Amino acid sequence: MTERTSAGSRPDEAVGHVIPFPARAEPPQIAFNRDELRTIFNLYGRQVAAGEWRDYAMDFRRDKAVFSIYRRASEMPLYRIEKDPKLARRQGAYAVIAASGLVMKRGTELARVLAVLEPPPRAV
């Protein structure tokens, strides 16, 4: 004899349907694209050749991408180049930030923002 529950089915039978909740899509990770990296590394290479900069680090977070520039690997970064798409329509997605936290330049075009890091031309 089999056991019956009050619903009239066997206890080992599934009752009802399981409907899974749709999974929340994780927001894409923010990163620099190839053209942006080319522009940054072009400036970085010139400054390394001049002996001003020696090391870099890249951090990719959910809300922004950061390219940090170091004079020595053991120090705090001299500058941070940040890409924050949330600020793209308001102040511009790109920013150069000094070691003190001062925003040196912010804008929508990376090349114009990086111009603040270019050394002034020297008389020959």
Account of the 3D structure:
The structure is a single chain. By secondary structure, the protein is α+β, with helices and mostly antiparallel strands. The protein has a domain at 34-117. The chain is built from 2 helices and 5 strands; from the N terminus they run H-E-E-E-E-E-H. It has helices spanning 34-49, 110-114, and strands spanning 55-60, 65-70, 79-83, 94-98, 103-107. Strands 1-2-3-4-5 form a 5-stranded antiparallel β-sheet. Strand 1 (55-60) and strand 2 (65-70) form a beta hairpin. The longest helix has 16 residues, at 34-49. 16% of the residues are buried.
Counted by DSSP, the helix tally is: 2
Number of strands: 5
Low-confidence stretches: none
Distance between the termini: 104 Å
Largest sheet: 5 strands, antiparallel
What value does the Rg take, in angstroms?
Answer: 27 Å
Let me know the average pLDDT: 86
Spatial ordering of strands, largest sheet:
1-2-3-4-5
**Approximate helicity band:** 10-25%
* SSE run: HEEEEEH
Q: Label the overall shape.
A: elongated
What is the strand content? 15-25%
Structural class: alpha+beta
Quaternary structure of the protein: single chain
SSE layout:
Layout: H1 34-49, E1 55-60, E2 65-70, E3 79-83, E4 94-98, E5 103-107, H2 110-114
Antiparallel strand pairs: 1-2, 2-3, 3-4, 4-5
